[in-house]
Amino acid sequence: MSDRLTRLRKQMADTGTDLVALGPTSHMRWLSGLDPHGDERPVMLLVSAGYAGVLMPSLNADSARAATDLPFHTWADDTGPDAALGELLASCGATGAGLSVAVDEAMRADFALLLLDALDNPRRSFAADTVGLLRQMKDAEEYEGLRASARLNDEAARAAFAALEEGMSERDVQAIIQAHYKANGARPEFTIVGFGANGAYPHHHTGETRLKRDMAVLIDTGCRLNGYPSDMTRCGWFGTPDPEFTKVAQVVEDAVQAALAACKPGALARDIDAAARDVITAAGYGPRFLHRTGHGLGIDIHEPPYITATATTELRAGNVFSIEPGIYLEGRFGVRLEDIVILREDGPEILSGLSRAIVTSP
Questions:
Q1: 3-state DSSP assignment of residue 163
Q2: Is 140-361 CATH 3.10.450.50?
Q3: Is the pTM of this model over 0.90?
């Protein structure tokens, strides 16, 4: 935590930020280890150049203290948070006019307004250029956690494809995957299983559709292991693959390869998206690529950087994000192949060890 706080203060100095204000969100968890109970009672972590402290309801203070050595400025239901917040701002030296304040994007609006109303004509921004930017640069601990979660995800997906039988439902496959997570100390984050035409809906709700011969199978799934998530999509065919399915799968794999080749420090996120999208468009399936090429992954399963057609984010070594192009043929099938990569100085390292080759079942 001390290293992250030091890095944050340097970033604050570089961006001219006087005060960073974080709510009970993943920003707070990343910086301090605190993951306090979140309800309507104001909680916030304030950081200035010389002080960091937490506005904390006294109701929750004892249970939260084990997570951090930061000082708490507590308040009770019968007195309200105003006095405690004033003391915290004074400790931070945040009493002058026109301070530059970076507010947590995910903080409750009423918490943010409570803070801003207590300041004298502050200059407001979001925390994207301070905590948000630092969170995109994964350290060794985060890398190891994400990699371990990815490898467990591999095992679960492999077990699911191996268990496919005619007549089983999408929910049956989902249960196999999630049982594997739980048996290995993880909790399910999400599991999408799409049989046949259901795979053509990128965010299909796993249901009671039954597996039949000559049917496509799409599995997009992730767990959370020791606090770190995973996310990966693989596709298969139950029976003898349809020739167009085989063609589409190869186009999507080619798009993945093109995007990976474009992943270099200094590249813009939109260039990665274009590399994948151009392959799919050239093959005649451009309108059937329905979403962005990727998203960041860290404490949150979706976080910056976002790999979109319009994103001008300059990618840096240490960024972790997905590469997941797809082609969706309504009424027939969908193919999406997704891997999480960490960007190294010499290019992307894929966290999964599972082949993207289409899984065929006899």
A1: coil
A2: no
A3: yes
